[in-house]
Amino acid sequence: MQNQYTAVVKHTGEWWFGWIAEVPGVNCQEHTREDLLETLAITLREALEFNRQDALRDAGSDFTEERIAI
Fold it and tell me: Do residues 20 and 27 lie in contact, with contact meaning Cβ atoms separated by under 8 Å?
């Protein structure tokens, strides 16, 4: 199953700006729309992995992982 997220995209002057609506802090800017979407995808993947690593570290050693679908 592949998760989907919403990119909010805005073009101002010579820059394209974008945010991932569901994940605070994931935002980028690029000179083309295509580059922006690619950079947002990379940044989102990295942010999710960092968040996962932080959660596992904070949980310590006695925990389980459960998948939750919404």
Answer: yes
Question: What is the DSSP code string of 40-69?
Answer: HHHHHHHHHHHHHHHHHHHH-SS-------
Quick check: helix, strand or coil at residue 11? strand
How many CA atoms lie less than 13 Å away from 41 in the CB half-sphere? 9
What digits encode the pLDDT tens for the residues 28-37? 999 999 999 9
Q: What is the mean pLDDT of the chain?
A: 95
Q: Where are the domains of the chain?
A: 7-59
The C-alpha atoms of residue 40 and residue 34 are separated, in whole angstroms, by: 10
Question: Distance between CA 20 and CA 26 in Å, rounded?
Answer: 6
* Distance from C-alpha of 47 to C-alpha of 18, rounded to nearest angstrom: 15
What pTM value is reported for the model?
A: 0.87
